[in-house]
Amino acid sequence: MIVLSALGRLLVICLALLVAMLAGSLFIGFGLISGMFPELLASDGSSFFNDPDADFAILTVLTIGAGFVASIQLAGLALLPVTIAIAITELMRWQGMTVHLVLGGLCGLFTILSVFSLPTGQVPSQGTIMVSLATGFVSAFFYWLIAGRNAGNWLEEKADA
Predict the structure, then answer these.
(1) pLDDT single digits (tens) 109-142
(2) Structure confidence at residue 43 as a pLDDT band (50, 70, 90)
(3) Which of 44, 51, 55, 75 has its CA 20 to 30 A from that of 92?
(4) Is the dihedral of CA 129, 94, 139, 81 positive or negative?
């Protein structure tokens, strides 16, 4: 019975991880696009295409496209720290949102520091660190909504069995 419970939990974790990676990548995609094309988000009445609806459509398409590319890269870069964080929360039965947000931020920080330290040894800028922390927080929040609130529940054996 515990095997079925563990398999079900593993499926929920995989789904939650997929949703969390997509949420984080869309967050980064929106940040990239809004930084490259600030005219799309102009609030002074000016418009990139002189049509707010066209601006919104272009922003949405570019965000999803950049988010898709970012999700592939994020999945590869963050796989090890995220797997360790999920194992810790499951084995310790930590279900709190704060714990998940802190671990998500640490995973984002670890990922960006490992990216910058490997090829050139450069230190990332403060803005890059803040964006990676925020991406970790966003991803961790979506993971917590789906799977983190019930972390470790599969370890409990039912008294009815």
Answers:
(1) 888 888 777 666 677 778 888 888 998 999 999 9
(2) low
(3) 75
(4) positive
Sequence-distant (6+) residues with CB within 8 A of 120 are: none
Token readout for 64 is 């999803």
Q: Which two structure tokens, joined as six digits, stand for 63?
A: 């965000």
Question: What is the Cα 103 distance to its own chain's centre?
Answer: 11
* pLDDT tens digits for range 95-118: 889 999 999 999 988 888 887 776
Contact residues for 33 (Cβ-Cβ < 8 A; gap 6+):
40, 59, 62, 63, 66
Asked if 129 and 2 count as a contact pair (C-beta separation under 8 A), the reply is no
For 122, counting Cβ atoms within 10 Å of its Cβ (0-12 exposed, 13-18 middle, 19+ buried), the class is: exposed
Let me know: does 28 contact 131? Beta carbons within 8 Å: yes
